[in-house]
# Entry
Amino acid sequence: QKEVEQDPGPLSVPEGAIVSLNCTYSNSAFQYFMWYRQYSRKGPELLMYTYSSGNKEDGRFTAQVDKSSKYISLFIRDSQPSDSATYLCAMSGTGFQKLVFGTGTRLLVSP
Amino acid sequence: SAVISQKPSRDICQRGTSLTIQCQVDSQVTMMFWYRQQPGQSLTLIATANQGSEATYESGFVIDKFPISRPNLTFSTLTVSNMSPEDSSIYLCSVEGGQSQETQYFGPGTRLLVL
# Structure
């Protein structure tokens, strides 16, 4: 079993839709939870991170962590075609160095 | 934020040969990381490279197969040795950054195809 599971998609939605991206994990030692966005032929870039459980909002993006269920989510409101990319969840137990990534979910937002 | 460049951007190699990938950062950084991103697989950490010390390899990766150099605070190389088709992958370097070192900045990656 992988430490981090993520549906590879693709997930296709119309412009303006609310998008929900999710990851599950098995290692209860994970404390830091991150979402990266990766455009085609580019390296991943950090969108948001949260420490432990709870919610965090940044503009159209909201990250949620439920440690009791070992489940994290990223919500994108009013999705735009420019949001089309692969979204990677990443986690670590001690800081931001040794990251364990999900496989990524490919999101396609059509105009 | 750090700007990272990698060379080559892509290459096609014959099995049994070796390829050295270069990673250049526009600022001095303590830690650099090398990842592999195989098709349909998650981004996987190969090793952590600190300047002036031996690289630290993750489980499943060995120095003989992936020797790393870190001659200064802005540059590192990863060599993929004695390549086989299973080494076909995207290789990325990254550095830690952000106000509280809360992120890693990634290079654009090197796409490697081994025939």
In short: The mean pLDDT of chain A is 93. The first strand of chain A starts at residue 4 and ends at 5.
